[in-house]
Amino acid sequence: MRKVIATEIGTLGIWDSLSLSFINSEEKYKKNFVTGKDIANLMNKGFGVFWNTGGDGHFVIDIRVNPEHDLLPAEEEMIEMETRNHKLVVTGGSLTVGSPETAGSMEEKALAEGYIAKLENIAPGTYKVDVYFVYDNEAVEGNKPAEEDLTANIVILKKVPEDTNFEELWDIPSLG
Predict the structure, then answer these.
(1) CATH number (domain holding residue 12)
(2) CA-to-CA separations, 81 to 101, 123, 134, in angstroms, rounded
(3) Gap between the Cα atoms of 81 and 174, Å rounded
(4) Number of alpha carbons in the 13 Å side-chain half-sphere of residue 15
(5) Per the CB 3.0–4.6 Å rule, which of 14, 133, 138, 153 could disulfide with 175?
(6) pLDDT of residue 84
(7) pLDDT (0 to 100) of residue 75
């Protein structure tokens, strides 16, 4: 799934909506999403994977579930930044992709307005998530047609055993 997503808080993510359904008020949102440490706590629990983009705006997110090859050779040559080996637990068979200011009780409205996207038919279980920021300099400089632009936040999900070890995070990863 390849989708353009906007953020006004400089952060993007992919999360399990059922795991974040407890965020049903501004107070609970602020308690869980204001500091990098709070967001890292959600990530350590496997509720979602979030990363700073370096700014606000529209970003391409390309999500690949259990791909045979994570990246194309051309994409591998264009990796600017990456954050790897994060835990995501899928409980309800779908994931939400977008800017986390819409997590929890705001999701239904944000989905209707196109601020987030749903990734359906995801097998429940534990996934290892790697995120790569790929920057296609030729396309950005206008030397390549826009439809060939490989610039994106590429999110790779691979199902792993439930007892897989993940490094504990103390802050939100940054790809910008």
Answers:
(1) 2.60.34.30
(2) 23, 28, 7
(3) 8
(4) 29
(5) 133
(6) 97
(7) 95
Q: How many helices (H) and strands (E) in the chain?
A: 5, 9
CA distance 114 to 116: 6
In a domain, 174, yes or no: no
From CA 147, how far away is CA 130, in angstroms rounded?
A: 24
- 98 contacts: CB under 8 Å, gap ≥ 6: 5, 7, 12, 13, 110, 115, 116, 117
| Residues shown for the chain | 176
What pLDDT does residue 119 have? 94
Mean pLDDT for back-to-back runs of 10 residues, the chain (176 residues): 88 94 90 91 97 91 96 95 97 92 88 89 97 91 85 96 96 89
Examine residue 168 and state whether it is found in any structural domain, yes or no.
Answer: no
Would you say residue 171 lies in a domain?
no
The domain tally of the chain equals 1
| Main-chain phi, psi angles of 82, to 5 degrees | -155, 155
Q: Terminus-to-terminus CA distance in the chain, angstroms?
A: 22
- Cβ distance 137 to 6 under 8 Å? no
Instruction: Please state, in angstroms and rounded to a whole number, the distance separating the CA atoms of residues 130 and 91.
Output: 19
Alpha-carbon distance of 55 to 176, in angstroms, equals 7
Domain that holds residue 139: 2-160
